[in-house]
Amino acid sequence: MNLTNLSRRTVLSWFAYLGALSVIPSQLFAAWPKDAFNSEAVNDAISELYGQAPQDSDRVKLKVPEIAENGAVVPVTVSTAIEDVESISVYVEGNPNPLAATFELTPYAVASVATRIKMGETSNVVAAVYANGNVYTATQEVKVTIGGCGG
Amino acid sequence: MAIKGKAKMRGDVVQVKVLMKHIMETGLRVDATTGEKVPAYHITEATCYWNGEEVFRTNLGPAVSKNPYLSFKIKGPQVGDTLNFTSIDSKGETDSGDFIVK
Known about the structure:
Radius of gyration of chain A: 20 Å
Shape of chain B: elongated
Oligomer: heterodimer
CATH class of chain A: Mainly Beta
CATH architecture of chain A: Sandwich
Number of helices of chain A: 3
CATH topology of chain B: Immunoglobulin-like
Strand order of the largest sheet of chain B: 4-3-6-7
CATH topology of chain A: Immunoglobulin-like
Mean pLDDT of chain A: 86
Mean pLDDT of chain B: 94
Low-confidence stretches of chain A: 21-29
Strand content of chain B: over 45%
Number of strands of chain B: 7
Number of domains of chain A: 1
Order of helices and strands of chain A: HHHEEEEEEEEE
Helix content of chain A: 10-25%
Largest sheet of chain A: 6 strands, mixed
Largest interface: A-B, 34 and 31 residues
CATH superfamily of chain A: SoxY domain
CATH architecture of chain B: Sandwich
Number of helices of chain B: 0
CATH class of chain B: Mainly Beta
């Protein structure tokens, strides 16, 4: 029996397996998720980030103003009582690239974040929470009187 | 140029508020004099460390407002502890700031 050949084949198959494993959602990498930021639709960006389709959840609390006088500075707060949250992300449906920011939570972090984003026009803002392999979202419309893009 | 921020103990949770200084250019704005688009230039990543361990990280896109504001909460650090906050932008420029938990 040619054990050398057999083991080489086995080893090669392991490498093939490892190659298949490397196709995992980009959020597991530390690098900036370029494909998600370049996505042109909210759900595309969500599946780029988490490899999952989202489901609406009233446990995701999204706080945005109903009317933003200045689209260049729209305050956004996202919090949730969902446990073991790994990531939170914020999207603006009407922006050319909807993903605005992602927040990667360690076990030290509490699932409550706030930032300020730009909105080009009146549109829905979406908050996504990734926990236990599921993506939960909340959506709310913000009316913009002066756009934050172009200029 | 240091990043400004505050870390305040509220019960057993530390509330961290950070204000970074950056133009956050979207890449969509047209320069009025040249008629050309101003290339995107923005902070891409910011990380908060406690005792050298990552406690919070954010990826920012160009749709985050100019001079990004960030607020988050962490459990673990105590009053008097130092949090190290660092950022890097799309040109690889870094910035940082230390906040003492009060």
